[in-house]
Design brief:
By secondary structure, the protein is of the alpha/beta class. The protein is built from 19 helices and eleven strands. The strands form two sheets. Strands 3, 6, 7, 8, 9, 10 and 11 form a seven-stranded mixed sheet that branches. A four-stranded antiparallel sheet has the order 2-1-4-5, with helices on one face. β9 and β10 form a beta hairpin. α7 crosses α11.
Length: 553
């Protein structure tokens, strides 16, 4: 039995937490080094003030200038290294999260495509949080209290002034972020309304052109775009004003420190080099607080993404194993399933067994839950109650790569993946050409593929008909002779000749001991099955022999 996989590789939330903690440790370590380098720059400037201005010694000035240049270069290098490091960490986070979130999204039924799209957007939000102002601003903010304490050594007035500037910068930054976000929300809402109007117009483009409504429609779009443009303009103007105010505040902080020092000197208060130090560090202490609004915005978006990924990965939290499969016997024991928030269950107490070498056809009206039942059989959807097993092992607890060695699946929409035809049939593995050819011949796709200009090396991006895609997808399901074959409407895009070939294939794989579970409403396929079961109102009706039922009830 294979070793259980690393839980971090299966849980999006755990993996995201591990990567973000690694990024935070890296940012804090580099932030400490940057802080020390920043102190070095301040010390070099104070040394020039203390040693060069009173003496006018050129050699001293040259030495201190070189030292200042080296420290500044070190500071810039460390900041650049931190930026590059956080970018590298964010890319690694995106690469490691992509697989788990897509696998977790695939379990969402219905809406797997929407769940996958939202999950990938959440991964991007976390990636931006790593590279954005959040972690770097947190590290830089650690320096601010130290700088304030340093000013307190010289006089409390300098520390008070710095604290006041930091407070005003934080409030102005938060206010600016809130007001700017409100303006952007208004702009996005107006843009969404306009996009809906454009989409409605394009859906009836022929009627618009035929009845001369184009000019009036365009005029309406232009009038509708005015609120969006106005909202965007207000948001941009406000953002520029806030940024200008924060920049002025940093300059005011340095100038105000000189004013405070001058007032203390006028009151005969000895400040030493405190006035110079306050001028140098006040602006530096204000900078992290000026970025606080942007950092909190990133933090809010990252937290929301974190919670969604945690909810998405809840179904992935149970450890999975790669079980052996000696006898491909599929058993569904009192399986029920209900969508979250649904008023009633889609499936109720379904009991079904598919033995090796048996073909079982599942009939029923559209929306009766046939596809969901197939996905439960393959472990892609966890039942709300009951259990589904293959050779005695729960399919929902089976590692996906392990179960794929024993099961083949043809979905209702036979989409193909990237790569060549041979790679698509081989499920994106390194193609075992004899196994690829055997599967293609069994699916009666070999002649079609061989007639292509590049044969099995043809990229799947080439325009195939729906029937050709279905034959290739069927060959993919048959690759390496799986013990369980699950087919969802396998003849949907096949003509009469292709349907007859599909019946021959079903009988051939069943004679080899393969268990077959399929859905169909075609009489030819139903008559080829050993048993036909009808799904109605969430329950299976009494099993019918194939000759007793020529069409679904």
């Amino acid at each position: 039995m294979a070793a259980p996989p690393d839980p971090l590789a299966e849980s999006p939330a755990l993996l995201a937490r591990a990567e973000i903690l690694a990024a935070a440790r890296f940012a804090l370590a580099l932030g400490l080094a940057i802080s020390l380098a920043g102190f070095g720059v301040i010390a070099a400037k104070l040394a020039i003030w203390q040693l060069v201005l009173p003496t006018g010694n050129g050699w001293t000035l040259a030495g201190l200038a070189i030292a200042l240049g080296l420290v500044v270069a070190l500071l810039l290098g460390l900041e650049h290294l931190r930026a590059l490091g956080l970018i590298a960490v964010s890319h690694r986070l995106a690469r490691r999260l992509a697989g788990p979130v897509v696998r977790a999204a695939a379990r969402q039924d219905p809406g797997a495509d929407r769940a996958a799209g939202q999950a990938l957007r959440d991964v991007e939000s976390l990636r931006r949080a790593v590279t954005g102002p959040l972690l770097a601003g947190l590290a830089d903010a650690l320096l601010a209290p130290v700088l304030v304490l340093l000013l307190l050594v010289f006089h409390w007035a300098f520390a008070t002034w710095a604290l006041a500037c930091c407070t005003v910068a934080a409030l102005l930054s938060l206010l600016g972020e809130r007001l700017t976000r409100r303006g952007l929300v208004e702009a996005e809402a107006a843009q969404a309304r306009l996009a809906a109007q454009v989409a409605d117009g394009l859906r009836c483009a022929e009627a618009v052109a035929a009845m001369g409504m184009g000019d009036r429609l365009v005029a309406g779009w232009q009038a509708g775009s005015a609120p969006a443009e106005a909202a965007q303009r207000r948001a941009r103007t406000l953002a520029r004003r806030i940024a200008a105010g924060l920049g002025s505040l940093q300059a005011l902080g340095a100038g105000g420190a000189l004013v405070v020092g001058a007032l203390l000197l006028a009151l005969d208060v000895p400040v030493g080099f405190g006035m110079v130090l306050a001028m140098l560090v006040t602006g530096q202490a204000v900078a992290p607080f000026a970025r606080l609004g942007a950092a909190l915005h990133e933090a809010g978006a990252a937290r929301a993404a974190w919670l969604r990924l945690g909810a998405l990965g809840a179904a992935e939290a149970t450890p999975t194993l790669a079980y052996p499969c000696r006898t491909p016997r599929l058993v569904l024991d009192r399986v029920s399933f209900a969508h979250p928030g649904a008023a009633r269950a889609l499936l109720r107490d379904v009991v079904l067994e598919v033995s090796p070498g048996e073909i079982v056809a599942l009939a029923g009206a559209a929306g009766s839950g046939k596809t969901t039942l197939l996905r439960i059989a393959l472990g892609m959807v966890r039942p709300s109650a009951g259990i589904c097993t293959l050779d005695g092992h729960a399919t929902a607890q089976w590692a996906r790569t392990g179960l794929a060695r024993h099961a083949g699946y043809l979905p209702q929409d036979p989409l193909l993946t990237d790569g060549t035809v041979a790679e698509a049939i081989a499920r994106l593995e390194e193609p075992d050409l004899p196994a690829v050819l055997r599967a293609a011949r069994l699916a009666e796709a070999h002649a079609m593929v061989a007639s292509l200009p590049q044969g099995y090396a043809t990229p799947v991006g080439t325009q195939f008909s729906a029937g050709q895609r279905q034959r290739i997808a069927l060959a993919r399901a048959l690759y390496r002779d799986p013990g369980l074959l699950v087919l969802d409407e396998p003849s949907a895009f096949l003509e009469a000749e292709g349907e007859a070939g599909l019946v021959r294939m079903l009988r051939e794989v069943a004679s080899r001991g393969t268990a077959v579970l399929l859905t169909s409403h075609r009489p030819a396929l139903l008559s080829a099955a050993d048993r036909v079961v009808v799904l109605r109102a969430g329950q299976l009706l009494a099993t019918e022999r194939r000759r007793a039922l020529a069409a679904p009830a």
